[in-house]
């Protein structure tokens, strides 16, 4: 059940990701489900932009709570995904417009963006559309438009979906983590953390919404690269050194294209490198946001 923003406002500062209430807000004919927590003391809010097929419950509690220890953190379901209403978008540009609608409905004049995977692509579109709205960005497990292997993410994702079904595992064990002992253990721990919230969990993504997002990824991967030299904001780019979904070469490419970027590559880690190394990532993210 969704709580009203007014009823939940007093609870968000002390809440953790596993128990913070889900709220809703309407903008441009869409009702967005979101969760909000952390230090709402006038600092720049950190808006989280989520990955392919993800809903609110796919965010790592250690990362969200780690950021919320010092920042005002907000995560929301994309239009037509999870508990948000409307028809799902099938382009990154539309997802960015929806993100902008949500941010403005919340009344934020400036935000920091943290985009993981597909969310990092949405973040790039947001900053290109309205650069004055964005103070800093964290782009993890993602790449630029036209980047290597992005147009074929559907093939990788669906292959691992079949592989996981045949072995009785969660697809994220294959998609996000390496098959080394360290990677397998990290994947198991991550999946356990995603189950820590037991009450008022989000709705899973519908099949048609997943298909729409795959269409957006294919189009993004085939799109002509944007001129990212115009992005003057500081950017933290992070990934694992063996990303199968959005090949790690894209992270190096992003860091080169962005004039004010710093790059973190985690060893023996895949697409979910920030989840595998969550303690180090939170430390680096907090230092980056504090500067």
Automatic annotation (TrEMBL):
Organism: Pelomonas parva
Keyword set includes Disulfide bond: no
Keywords carried by this UniProt record: Hydrolase
Record's keyword annotation contains Phosphoprotein: no
Alphabetical list of Pfam families matching this protein: Abhydrolase_1
Family matches, as Gene3D superfamilies: alpha/beta hydrolase
All copies of domain AB hydrolase-1, residue ranges: 45-277
Signal peptide: none
The name this protein goes by in its record: Alpha/beta fold hydrolase
Listed InterPro entries: AB_hydrolase, AB_hydrolase_1, AB_hydrolase_fold
Sample GO molecular function, one term: hydrolase activity
């Amino acid at each position: 059940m969704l709580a009203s923003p007014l009823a939940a406002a007093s609870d968000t500062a002390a809440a953790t990701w596993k128990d913070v209430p889900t709220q809703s807000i309407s903008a441009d004919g869409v009702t967005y489900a979101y969760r909000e927590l952390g230090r709402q003391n006038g600092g720049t809010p950190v808006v989280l932009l989520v990955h392919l097929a993800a809903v609110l419950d796919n965010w790592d509690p250690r990362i969200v709570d780690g950021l919320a220890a010092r920042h005002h953190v907000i995560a929301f379901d994309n239009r037509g995904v999870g508990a948000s209403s409307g028809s799902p978008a099938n382009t990154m540009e539309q997802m960015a417009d929806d993100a902008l609608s949500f941010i403005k409905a919340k009344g934020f004049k400036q935000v920091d963006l943290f985009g993981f995977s597909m969310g990092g692509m949405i973040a790039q579109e947001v900053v290109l559309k309205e650069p004055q709205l964005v103070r800093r960005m964290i782009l993890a497990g993602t790449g630029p438009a036209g980047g290597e292997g992005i147009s074929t993410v559907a093939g990788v994702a669906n292959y691992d979906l079949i592989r996981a079904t045949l072995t009785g595992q969660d697809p994220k064990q294959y998609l996000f983590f390496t098959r080394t002992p360290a990677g397998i253990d990290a994947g198991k721990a991550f999946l356990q953390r995603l189950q820590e919230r037991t009450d008022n969990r989000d709705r899973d993504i519908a099949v048609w919404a997943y298909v729409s997002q795959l269409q957006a990824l294919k189009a993004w991967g085939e799109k002509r690269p944007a001129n990212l030299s115009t992005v003057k904001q500081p950017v933290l780019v992070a990934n694992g050194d063996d990303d199968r979904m959005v090949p790690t070469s894209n992270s190096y490419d992003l860091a080169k294209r962005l004039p004010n970027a710093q790059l973190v590559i985690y060893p023996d880690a895949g697409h979910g490198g920030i989840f595998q190394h969550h303690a180090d990532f939170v430390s680096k993210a907090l230092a980056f946001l504090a500067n």
